[in-house]
Specification:
The chain has 124 residues and is mostly beta strands. The protein is built from no helices and 11 strands.
Length: 124
């Protein structure tokens, strides 16, 4: 089972860019579907983006499509979330998640392993 550690969060201005990283342990990283979710204060956790393991396909929430890009480097056991044109409503704790069998990429319950989260704050 993999373990996940996120990094790269911080305080930025609206319109800025930020890249989140998620470092995974384990030798079978390439077989996992990796996802990014976020949770804003007082709101439920929501799907942001996902990338499948084999023959990677990407999936995005409508709210970030065209602004965010998810990618993975299986040689480094890392997954990234490049966030451009950030908006104040993107402010949240961002979580990296991993799942061996993910039937529905935007469904949080399909992911078995979660990181501790990294805070992203976008000032207006």
């Amino acid at each position: 089972q993999v373990q996940l550690v996120e990094s790269g969060g911080g305080l930025v201005q609206a319109g800025d860019s930020l890249t989140l990283s998620c470092a995974a342990s384990g030798r079978t990283f390439s077989s996992y579907t990796m996802g990014w979710f976020r949770q804003a204060p007082g709101k439920e956790r929501e799907f942001v983006a996902a990338v499948s393991g084999i023959a990677p396909m990407t999936y995005y929430a409508d709210s970030v499509k065209g602004r965010f890009t998810i990618s993975r480097d299986n040689a480094k056991n890392n997954v990234y979330l490049q966030m451009n044109s950030l908006k104040p409503e993107d402010t949240a704790v961002y979580y990296c998640a991993a799942g061996r069998v993910v039937a529905v990429p935007n469904r949080s319950t399909d992911y078995r392993t979660w990181g501790q989260g990294t805070q992203v704050t976008v000032a207006s």
